[in-house]
Amino acid sequence: MSNNMFPGGDPFQPSDGFGQGGFNLPPGASGAGYTPPARAGSRPDTPSRAKNPKRGKKEKDKAPKTTTKRLLNKQRVFAIAFALVAIMIGLNLSSQEQPSTYVVRATTAVPALSKVEPGQYEIVALPTVAVEEGAISGDSMSKVETLISELFVNARTRMSFPKGHQFHQEDFSGEVQLAIPLGANERILALEASVVSAIGGQLRAGDRVDVIAVISYQNKTYSNVVASNVEIIAALPGEQQFNSIAQQQAAGSKDKGSNELLPSDPVPGIYNVRVDLNQAVVLAAAQSRGELVLVLRGASASDTAVSAIDLESTVTKDNGGSGSFSPIDPAG
Question: Which CATH class is domain 71-177?
Fold first, then answer.
């Protein structure tokens, strides 16, 4: 054995893990189990995250928590959706259980003294509790259409109405609104009365009144009932309001109609009444001689005796009349 031999074998033959020594291996080190020392200035090897027992435990603990939270969120979403569906079903069932009534409702503002045109109204079904008393209504759309077919074509509104208004028969003037058609001897007569002489302008269609004539004769004032239990079928704006409209149109508002110039809620001053022919003659004569006062009657009021047709003979005794008009002494 030569002294030139290196201990541990041939330095130019790398060890295969079974021999002793080898290339760049220190004496006595085996190749398979040998781990070279760390070089100066280098960072020590760090075990991978997958092999970190502590970190792996945390990740393993966190995974179930995240999954549970997601499940809880999904359960909340499903619960809210189910509650909303249940509410909608309940509302639908409750609306179906409530009886409905068809009414006529304004879809836009309707001016006073005008006809209700197509597009200004609709027929809708409402719960019975939402239907106004006296509104034009029926249990089917066809019945309501029949009720308004003639009314909206011929009649005019007594005053303006806002959008959403439920129409009533008394909202219109004209014979078409009469529940009982005029008889052979019946007439419609227009009477004019001031606000003070007509219950402060509160009289409306359907009211019944006694008509008192107040007449001045030879510096004395006489009064008497000239018509009893007279039905008012319409209340219209007074003549002064129409005169005001005419003045506005003459002053430069020629292109505007009465619907635009009338107040939105005009005070009545003209009353259309249903009377027989004899009553019409008396009322016309009394109105030409003096002032008419409309006295509201109660439902149980009895008829009042009225004067004769010939006012000239009933007012005074000078012409051989009965003097049925009671003289009013201004001195008391």
Answer: alpha beta
